[in-house]
Amino acid sequence: MAKKAGSTKNKDDLIVIAGAGGFIAGALTRYFHDKGFTRIRAIDKKPLPDWYQRVESVECLSMDLSEKDNCIRACEDAQEVYNLAADMGGMGFIERFRVMCLRSILINTHMIEAAYRAGARRYFFSSSACAYNTLLQQDPNVRALKESDAYPAMAERGYGWEKLLSEMFCQEYWAERGLRTAIARFHNVYGPNGTWDGGREKAPAAICRKVIEAKESGNHEIVIWGDGTQTRSFMYIDDCVKGIDMIMHCDDLTATPINLGSSELVSINTLVSMVEEIGGVRLKRSYDPDAPKGVAGRNSDNTFIKKVLKWEPSLPLKEGLKRTYKWIAAQYADRKAGKHTVRDQI
Ligand code: NAD
Description:
By secondary structure, the chain is of the alpha/beta class. It contains eleven helices and 13 strands. The chain has helices at 23-34, 68-75, 91-96, 98-102, 105-118, 159-177, 203-217, 237-248, 268-279, 303-309, 317-336; strands at 15-18, 40-44, 59-62, 80-83, 122-128, 180-186, 189-190, 221-225, 231-233, 235-236, 258-260, 265-267, 284-288. The strands form four sheets. The protein has a seven-stranded parallel sheet, with helices on both faces. Helix 6 (159-177) links the parallel strand 5 and strand 6 (180-186). Helix 1 (23-34) packs across helix 8 (237-248), helix 2 (68-75) packs across helix 5 and helix 7 (203-217) packs across helix 11. The longest helix is centred in the C-terminal third of the chain and has 20 residues, at 317-336. The termini are far apart. 48% of the residues are buried. Nicotinamide-adenine-dinucleotide binds next to helix 1 and strand 5.
């Protein structure tokens, strides 16, 4: 019988969140703060003014967590450590910058050791659907990926292999040293306060921005990467942070990789149509077959998460896209007016 998720922590436990200047860890910081946790230490290598969200009364540190000494400082007195720091982005980024993606191995390697030495009770690692065997993802009409599909291993080059190896660290720290670890394989997360420009953005944000740009400029055209038939599922950020909390605090999931994603599969063409509808515009489509497009199809099989947590991410894509579009449109207007906006450069 699964232990009730979220039942094992105290409101004054020190929670350490790595990567908190970015999208998901920024939202996770906000989530724990809003739940009444009083001691949160948020860390990112970005300078503080560049963080996507700065949450009031949270200790915010700008440190490079690929350095061992910084990880020791980051984990001091920690009860729970959430590692979401990684050099990552959409397909355009992870296909071009494999070395940067692979070097994130340093972050998890030092963070998990530091967490263990600090006596942390729980350690979370943000893995990815890119850890799955790519040979199973060559058809847009994919069979959804279940947790056992990561092996035999043929992960996404660079980024996916780093995730797979870091997962193994988490499994062995539990097996050999008794550090309770949690591993979630995220499937495309989107929502407000995420990267929407600059080269690291993912498909939902990029398409919202392109539709907004087309409306603004009056040039009603859109370039789609690949042929638009590639399929994906997209999880709204609120579902993601809730899932992280539940997975981290479910003892039955210790050191067990689990999908955290939506099972609503759509093609990129459909995604564009949804955003066009929200924006109230129809654009002339052209396709760039040479642009990075990733695997042909990928979906999350949620059988396991439903069984263990009696829950799965459920916000419909259309609703999540409406909220995201609105936020990006406001960012776009702010940037035009010369105000500070969320921006990440490669
Ligand atoms: P993000 O780029 O918005 O956030 C990651 C943050 O990590 C960035 O702010 C970055 O500055 C920070 N970082 C990178 N290297 C660092 C270092 N050496 N020291 C300290 N901080 C460092 O990305 P995100 O979308 O919020 O992703 C968070 C985690 O979830 C990552 O591990 C990512 O691989 C994983 N993930 C995300 C998605 C998704 O769809 N967004 C999908 C699968 C997995």
